[in-house]
Amino acid sequence: MVLIRINYNLLRMASISIHQSPIHLFSNSTHFLHRLSISSSSAATCLSASSSSFSTVCSPDKRISRYENTKAVLKGMTYTEFEKWVSSHGYRPGQALMLWKCLYGDNIWAHSVEDLEGLNKDFKKMLSKQAEFTVLKMKDILTATDGTRKILFTLEDGLVIETVVIPNEKGRTTVCVSSQVGCAMNCQFCFTGRMGLKRNLSAAEIVEQAVFARRLLTSEVGSIANVVFMGMGEPLQNIDNVIKAVDIMVHDQGLHISPRKITVSTSGLVPQLKRFLRESNCALAVSLNATTDVARNWIMPINRKYNLSLLLETLREELKSKHKYKVLFEYVLLAGVNDSIEDAKRLIDLVQGIPCKINLITFNPHSGSKFKPTSDEKMIEFRNILAEGGCVVLLRPSRGDDQMAACGQLGNPGEIQAPLLRVPAQFQAALEAAL
Ligand code: SF4
């Protein structure tokens, strides 16, 4: 596997400059990573602004480079902002559109002025002085035996994120993008959760993962038309940048991804989830993974703040005003923890009245994990109980796990890790039996 160095400088600064987590779940922890929760959309700004040792992202569309030149980050702008910026430099809307198409459409996916086609010389000269085309640097690309690709990108501040491309023989190839570096949610079954949160990604850093995936892999895997926000991080903790990135991705002269083919996943941040459902037409996935608060409080500590009944009641209410909209519940089956027949029956009751589909997901083991995957037979039994109870349910096979590219396997926690939580007494025996 690829070795990734943690930027301790950044961690140290982050512990000073970022306020206490809005989720006070971790406030008693002595582990400082848990205090790195960033609720602000401009978290990247806070982090970078206090640094003098690396380039900074000062606003969605401006960057001060190592050489202190102020350049506009093109992929951090919505089309309206983009057009305004082009016209502020004396160029017409038609030229803005041509440039936008070079960045996102027409199979160009320009990474520099040299890649631009059909633009006049003066415009290109201005762009080379005033505009930044890329914010990611490809570090490595790993291919799993099933064809899943994991792409590692280095950010301007040296941190590393991961993006996964999952080919599909029916042409529904999906790119799974990261929204944060690490994650503050500390879900106990997730490798990324071990990292703690380093920082939010900017809109440009999110959008460019999809652009890069198309540029690098379209010729090999065909069209990449689906985007899932299921990579590193809790997307709704970075909701402003996620909504902005989605706005850029759906533009019909650019990447032109249908909102229904973009799925944003959450561990259950209720206020942000409400906002997302009201402001966005994209699909929503909720990572549920348990049918009791006791189990969910342990494996998904966010449940201590927003418990199951609040989460599900919010969805029930909010979806009343959404036409033909189904939420996707994701349920990772963990042997002896959440995979009993009683769990299946409780799950049927819990989702009553919520238009939904349920994805049953195989647990992908990783080093240090206490959990074991549920057997195939038991997964099928669980699926059958849900289907007989009237649920729309799918078994989702694991993809890319031999390259740590599968669900819950992204990232590199390094030496400083978020702690594993105490196992509640009622799960001790079951967990030991499963091991
Ligand atoms: S499952 Fe998602 S929300 Fe939970 S720790 Fe992992 S990345 Fe974060």
From TrEMBL:
GO cellular component: cytoplasm
Principal subcellular localization: cytoplasm
Biological process annotations from GO: rRNA base methylation; tRNA methylation
InterPro entries membership: Aldolase_TIM (IPR013785), Methyltransferase_A (IPR040072), RNA_MTrfase_RlmN (IPR027492), rRNA_lsu_MTrfase_RlmN/Cfr (IPR004383), rSAM (IPR007197), rSAM_sf (IPR058240)
Keywords noted in UniProt: 4Fe-4S, Cytoplasm, Iron, Iron-sulfur, Metal-binding, Methyltransferase, rRNA processing, S-adenosyl-L-methionine, Transferase
Lyase in keyword set: no
Compartments it resides in: Cytoplasm
Cofactor(s) the protein needs: [4Fe-4S] cluster
GO molecular function (one): 4 iron, 4 sulfur cluster binding
Domain of life: Eukaryota
Domain Radical SAM core: 169-402
PANTHER family: 23S RRNA METHYLTRANSFERASE, RADICAL SAM SUPERFAMILY PROTEIN
Protein name as it appears in the record: Radical SAM core domain-containing protein
Keyword field contains Kinase: no
NCBIfam families in UniProt: rRNA_mod_RlmN
